Amino acid sequence: MLSIALTTCILCSQTEVTTPKYNSKLDFHFVHQFESSIDNGGDVDLTSYGAEFRLDTAITNSDDLQFKFQLHRAQWNFSGTSGLGLDNPWETINTIDLGLTWTHHYSKSTQWFFSGLGRTSYEEDASTGTVYGGAVGFVHSFSSDFTFGLGAGVIEQALDDVRWFPVFVLDWKIGHNLKLTSDISTRFGGRMGVELVWTPTKKWTLGAGYANSYNRFRLDDSGFAPNGAGEATSSPLTFRATYHSSPTFDITFLAGIVLGGRIEVIDQQKATIARQDYESAGAIGILGQIRF
């Protein structure tokens, strides 16, 4: 779901038509979330990694297209002698996103965007049923320092009704080297949020961000909820340092705290059979971006 909003935020935070005909980026990430206790018993930790390819192109003087393809793999580790730690509701979750966003520059200061997404998210050996969604909205530059936009999106969900969600776009240049943006650096997976970004030198950028993370996926035909669905949500608070090693490559070192973690398990009759929170957990990671 949030990948639609995130795609839109990444594209629409740019307020000018792309100068080159094609602009492509490859992002990759590896993040480990340390072990924390689940409310009803047991512990959980998470290791995730993946890559995202984005291609932007200006098709006319007023219209841009962005294509996005993302692979994300989340390895959950449940442990303990009671509760969900013992039940071990799922293990490795694979997510594949394919998105397309069209932006129309209605005027020099106003843009409209339309976004579509196909997603498959599933536990290994589970059904890879694809869900679809889309978003629409507008972005307005009130000045050279402040851009804001709003929209709405919808996406299908595994074993549930469609989900509606808001979309927002923000690019606020607070000072010469300081800005607040919705184009967060930790955009892997299903995350949407804001980040305060400071660029003290040409080689280094520092950021502090807050996001909401959401994923719903199909489960395999064995275990705690055969052919059911899982849902994982959290609110990561992240701090990062990005080193711009060359005009085409950045590397980012990440640390943070995962707040508000929640795990839900749904059976194949669409009934919620478990809903548990887990305690705040530390996280570290490394991210990279190649531009070509």
Question: What Rg do the Cα atoms give?
Answer: 19 Å
Oligomer: single chain
Give the CA-CA distance, first to last residue: 28 Å
- Total separate domains: 1
Question: Which outline best applies?
Answer: globular
Please sum up the structure shown.
The protein has 292 residues and is mostly beta strands. The chain has helices at residues 2-12, 83-87; strands spanning 22-37, 43-58, 63-79, 92-105, 110-123, 130-141, 146-157, 160-175, 178-181, 191-198, 204-218, 229-246, 249-266, 272-278, 281-291.
Task: Provide structural commentary.
It is built from 2 helices and 15 strands. Strands 1-2-3-4-5-6-7-8-9-10-11-12-13-15 form a 14-stranded antiparallel barrel. The chain has helices spanning 2-12, 83-87, and strands at residues 22-37, 43-58, 63-79, 92-105, 110-123, 130-141, 146-157, 160-175, 178-181, 191-198, 204-218, 229-246, 249-266, 272-278, 281-291. It starts with a helix and ends with a strand. The protein has a single domain, classed as Porin (Beta Barrel). β6 and β7 (146-157) form a beta hairpin. 5% of the residues lie in helices and 68% in strands. Residues 1-19 have low confidence and may be disordered. With 292 residues, it is mainly beta.
SSE topology sketch:
Blueprint: H1 2-12, E1 22-37, E2 43-58, E3 63-79, H2 83-87, E4 92-105, E5 110-123, E6 130-141, E7 146-157, E8 160-175, E9 178-181, E10 191-198, E11 204-218, E12 229-246, E13 249-266, E14 272-278, E15 281-291
Antiparallel strand pairs: 1-2, 1-15, 2-3, 3-4, 4-5, 5-6, 6-7, 7-8, 8-9, 9-10, 10-11, 11-12, 12-13, 13-14, 13-15
